[in-house]
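Deliverable D4.2, example record:
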Amino acid sequence: MAAAPETVAVPETVAVPETVAVPETVAVAGWREAGIDAVRAVAIAGVVTGHWLVTALFVDHAGAVRVASPVAALPSVRPVTWLFQTLGLFFLAGGYAAAASAHRRARPRRPRRTRTLLVSVGLVTGVLALAMTAGALAGVPEETLGTVATLVVSPLWFLLPYLVLTAAIRPIAALVDRWGAAPLVGAGLAVVAAADLGLGVLPTTLVAAWLVPFTLGVALAGGRLAARRTGWLLLLVGAASVVALVTVARYPSSAVGVPGDGRSNLDPPSLAAVALSLAQAGAVILLLPHLRRLGVRRWVAAVNRLALPIYLWHQAAMIAVTVTVAWLAGPLPGLLREPDSAGWVAARLAWLPVFAAALLPIARSAAPPGRPAESPRTPRTPASSSSP
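Output generated by the structure prediction step:
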């Protein structure tokens, strides 16, 4: 699961030439789109919470730490995973941010953004390398080290589609401006459908899948998705498609991968995952007035400022809490025990605030330097009612 970092998804303020009509969704002259800030915060919260709920560390009979998932042992919780699969929102906000930045400057600030992103990733991998070396010297089992490394590195998959899509923002924005979002959305869906039939290549499928919500974010920034009928269309078609694919076409009933299952909705992204992103985009359009009110809250601003380190370090924080508590008190419910009952889920929910408390100082310490973000406000110009 997904979503969006400060340098990845926090939209720049947008200066628009006087000759260009300014839709309500575009932030101008020092204004930020509060609704998109709220979307980004929800996306990050969903990805992080989802990972913490479906990732269980336990000690096997040989004394090595391994990963299990309550989704495998408790099939009844699988439908709930769709609520925490917010990667579509992550890329929707990313597309909006990239379009806003491209509008602001003749040359988008990709080098600085990319450099900051790569430095942050380098910090994570560097600390991981040091931890792996120290663990090996201390005699930690190889299987345990492999488990830790996999959990910390696995969120970095977003680098490929994010970098490709943001690098291509100008042609994407130009196509959306001329033809609307439908052609690119249709192309992305076609590539993913082919992959579901066994005709895809993983990198291409990954980019094509997240091109869909990214394109919708670009269209939203350009005011092309303001009509409520468009929101209802995306919401109903996307939600109905997810239900049909799961119940009729026998796609996996879980939004995330289940250990032992031969098929996943995320590896690579399936039509069901992309359909969910359509429904989420529709919900954003319909709820945008409410999201704007939410977006001016301080906690939303804080999540946006720390989005990149929160995303990169959330699994490391969970591992750190698990190891520390196990060292002090041994395995406890929800920690270092196999997730084989509803009791484990209840206990893990109780640990979430502890994980968050551990993550906050790590995220603050790892946050890239930069100017403070401006306060998000709701633009004052009337909304455009054009359709995609």
